[in-house]
Amino acid sequence: MTNTKSKTTATIGATKVVEDTIAATKATVEGAVKAGQEAAAKNVEQFMALTQEQFEKVGGDAFKGFDDVAGFGKDNIDAFVAAGNVVTKGWQDLGQAWFTFAQGTVENGVSVAQAMMTAKTPRDVVDLQNSYAKSAFDAFVAESSKLSELGLKVTNDAIAPISARVNATVEKFGKPLVA
User: Which of 23, 38, 141, 164 gives 20 to 30 Å between its CA and that of 61?
Assistant: First the structure.
């Protein structure tokens, strides 16, 4: 019995040591977890405070410049609208000039055709035809030159507001890069 009693006492003692070790380990782990949570919470709070501070610093500057950027964007849109208006008006002018030329060409062709019908000799018909071909070619060259100049003027007038905005953009945003 002594042998059993000493085994029981030894088992109780070993169980007590294991339970104490488990309790100590549990307390250590809980303490480490709690300390880690507190450190993490503190780090998150510091991170959030620094982030908010940086955001306010950068955001404040950004919002100050927002009005400038918005105004600048509006000016760019206005320039494109102005250019579009010039192009629209220019196409109307070009269309009207071409229509007027075509109408004059048809009227001239009709009058030459009438003159050919009243011609007395084939030689008169050939002379009328030659004269008409020469005058039609000269009119076409003159009208083409006129339409080309009008197209060039429309192009230059349409580019002017956009070119002004490009110059303003380079001036506004180019200075900080150079300085």
Answer: 164
The pLDDT tens digits of the residues spanning 145-174 come to 999 999 899 889 988 988 888 888 788 777
Distance CA 127, CA 121 (A): 10
Separation between Cα atoms, residue 147 and residue 153, nearest integer Å: 10
159, amino acid identity: I
Record the pTM: 0.52
Choose the weakest-confidence range: 41-45, 66-70, 151-155. 66-70
Distance of CA 64 to the CA centre of its chain: 22
| Residue tagged 């610093």 (tokens) | 57
Six-digit token pair at 73? 């964007």
Rounded alpha-carbon distances, angstroms, from residue 126 to 32, 41, 85, 109, 139:
114, 104, 48, 14, 20
CB 96, CB 146: distance < 8 Å: no
Counting Cα atoms < 13 Å in the Cβ hemisphere of 51 gives 6
